[in-house]
Amino acid sequence: MEELFRYYLGNIIILRIGTGLRYLWLRFVRHRKISYRTLYEGSKSKKKATELSNFENEMSNRAWGCGFILFVIFLIIFLRRFL
Q1: CB–CB of 53/65 below 8 Å?
Q2: Which 8-state DSSP code applies to residue 83?
Q3: Over the range 6-21, which residues count as b (16 or more CB within 10 Å of their CB) and which as e?
Q4: Which of the residues 2, 39, 67, 72 has an alpha carbon 20 to 30 A from that of 50?
């Protein structure tokens, strides 16, 4: 039960980190008018194309989160090795 809780908690944390980073990138670097909620939840429409778009949106958010965590891990390894 505890492992399942940690798995879901880790999954949610990665999704939130990725969504936050992607929101900051799109909002302030790419200058798009987008809300955090739209990025996190996706569109509310039940069309088949929208469901696929929501899935791609969620996977993109997770990829940003995983990429950020890997970047932090490599940065820590680099700093510990060379400093």
Answers
A1: no
A2: -
A3: eeeeeeeebbebbbbe
A4: 67
| Contact indicator for 31, 79 with CB cutoff of 8 Å | no
Task: State the SS3 of 13-68.
Answer: HHHHHHHHHHHHHHHHHCCCCCCHHHHHHCCCCCCHHHHHHHHHHHHHHHHHHHHH
Distance CA 61, CA 83 (A): 32
| CA–CA gap between residue 6 and residue 35 (Å, rounded) | 29
pTM (2 d.p.): 0.75
**Interatomic CA distance for residues 61 and 14, integer angstroms:** 8
Token couple for 50: 């929208």
